[in-house]
Each structure stands twice: as structure tokens, then as C-alpha cells.
Amino acid sequence: MFAIIGGSGLANLTELDRRRREVVRTPYGDPSCALTFGAIDGVDLVFLARHGYGHTIAPHEINYRANLWALREVGATQVLAVATVGGIRADLGPGALVIPDQIIDYTSARKGSFFEGPDDPVTHIDFTHPYSEMVRARFAAAARAIGETVALGGTYGCTQGPRLETAAEIRRMQRDGCDLVGMTGMPEAALARELELPYGALAVVANHAAGIGESSQAISLDAIGVVMNLAMERVRRILAACLRASVDSTSGASDASPSASGSKFEAS
Ligand code: HPA
């Protein structure tokens, strides 16, 4: 079953058929919200609003572990995540859609692993390629099928938030090789990998990052709302195309990412 994680601007999937909600509890606490189950064109999915349905949970307060655990618990087998970002690369302006292929993690003090505590052996996961190539290809094919332009590849820098960045922080991120800046990509992607859930993200550029382009003096929070409303309609169509394509394509497609499964090892 597909899991969709919606971020800012995508707190509901009202277009689902057979929609129902279910509260799921986990050993790691409560997820951001009750899970929404439903179907698009007959394909089952589970939806989770990362910030809660009322958009009340800040990026640093999200219980990422509970979110991923709950999705796996109810039978999700791959995660399509939608994330709002700022564009660092000059050509990634407001409204651009990007399928990132790399991550740099600038967050701090978030609970970023299921493997902890005195009873768990130290466990490492391979994270060379943080996103599932299968999910990335699914997003790309769906966008192509409906004529939406998406940028293929890009490095997502994840900051702690909730404040936006300074211009100097963005210049540093630019030097590091970041193309996008967001606040929720980590530890979400790493936790999915720990659970061996193929995970990919569709990033929606809401604004140029601090100090860049029309954000050279400030980031206009008013303008973001307008951009997001328009962009999220395109995102909804891409998500629907992802699900529709899963019916057409050969069943049982396996994850092409070499590091997506069997990639954990325990260190003594
Ligand atoms: N920085 C961090 N996260 C964001 C931004 C940004 O400029 N825009 C949307 N999410």
C-alpha cells in the first residue's frame, strides 16, 4: 500500500474515495494525526499530514518516528512524501517542483533513529543514496505522463527551523552543494530507510531562499501562500498519476535502489 505524507499546503487529500480515519498509537508515541485511508482510482493508500490536520506541529516538534512507524504498522510498503522548500539554485524559483536525490542534514536534537537504548545493539544503515530510486522514478514518470515539468535531482538541505535561514546560512548551504532548503526531510528519510520502506520526496519550491532572487531583502510570507495553493494542485495531479500508473505497471515492482533493503548492519 502507498503512503503519502503531506506537508505544508497539503494537509488533506479530500479527493480520496472510501475515506476513513484511524487513530494509531506506536511505541514511540503518537503520530502527527489520525491516519486517513482511502483510494484513488481504486488504488489504496494511507495519508498522513506531517504537521497535523490543523497544521499545528512545527518541524522540530514532529514525532517523525511515530509517523513512520505508524505507516509501516498499517501496511505501507512505500512512502511518497511531499515537502515544501525554499529554492537555493537560481533556476528553482517559486512553483518549481523537484525530485531531490541527495540530502544534507543540518538539524539537531531530533530523535533520528529507532535503534537506541541499552537493549538495542548499535545498528547502522547505509544511506549513500537517501531516496529510493524506485519512488523517484515513479514521481518522474507520473509528472511526465501528465505533462508537468519537474527538476530531476537536487540536494535537499534540512535545517532545524522553525525560523527561516539567514542569507549567510544560505550562502554556506550553497557552498556545501545544497539546491533546496527545507525543515522536514530529516530524519524522515533516514527513519524510512531504517524500516526498509522505500521513500522519495516531491519538493515544492515556495520561495527563493533567504538572500536569493526576490528574497534578497526578506522572504515574503504572503506570497508563499499564493504560490503554494497553485503548486499543490499540480502536486495532487502528480500523486494521482503515481497511483494510477501503479495499476498499469507490472505488479510487484521491486525497489531498484541498491541500498534500500538488507542494508542494515550491527556493530558490536
Ligand atoms: N527555508 C526552509 N524551509 C522552507 C523554506 C525556506 O526558505 N521555504 C519553505 N520551506
How would you describe the overall organization of this protein?
This protein has 268 residues and is of the alpha/beta class. The chain has one domain: Rossmann fold, CATH 3.40.50. The chain is 25% helix and 25% strand. The chain contains 5 helices and 13 strands. The chain has helices at 64-73, 133-145, 167-176, 188-194, 221-248; strands at residues 2-6, 17-22, 35-40, 43-49, 78-87, 97-99, 102-105, 122-125, 151-152, 155-158, 180-182, 199-208, 264-267. The strands form 2 sheets. Strands 1, 2, 3, 4, 5, 6, 7, 9, 10, 11 and 12 form an 11-stranded mixed β-sheet that branches. α2 packs across α5 (221-248). Mean pLDDT is 92; it is low at 250-262. Residues 84-86, 159, 164-165, 181-183, 206-207, 209, 219 line the site of hypoxanthine.
